[in-house]
Amino acid sequence: MNIMGRTLRRLTESSEDRILRESAEDHLRRHPGETVIPIQTCTPGETVTVSGTIAKLDVRPEGSAPALEVELRDDSGHVFVVWLGRRRIPGLHEGRSLVVHGRLNCVTDHPTIYNPRYELLPG
Fold it and tell me: 118 exposed, middle or buried (CB, 10 Å; 0-12, 13-18, 19+)?
């Protein structure tokens, strides 16, 4: 993109769009070759990278500490993503797309990834 195009984009895009664009570019640069797999094909105990849309977002108490729980869905299934000690993460809301990377746990009745690395995606 030429300098005029970059300047025009910077003047017209919202700060949220800029953050999302830079996050997606950063993910590709920092994690080349990281394969995003369908949720249904994940194996318990393995480190996975999955992408999906937030179907549900809840703040729940874990004893006395808060936890932010997200139900992440793709075309193949769903997985729960939990950030312990968090009440909210800016940019996370129902309908938001993201990529998460972490170890898949199945110690409860539903697959869960705790405290993953995450990337917000546009859209």
Answer: buried
| Beta-carbon count within 10 A of 120 CB | 19
Strands (E), the chain: 47-62, 65-73, 78-84, 97-105, 112-114, 117-121
User: What is this structure's pTM?
Assistant: 0.72
Average predicted confidence (pLDDT) for the chain: 83
In the DSSP assignment, the letter for residue 89 is -
The highest-level CATH class for domain 33-121 is: mainly beta
The residue type at 109: D
The mean per-residue pLDDT over the stretch 76-84 comes to 93
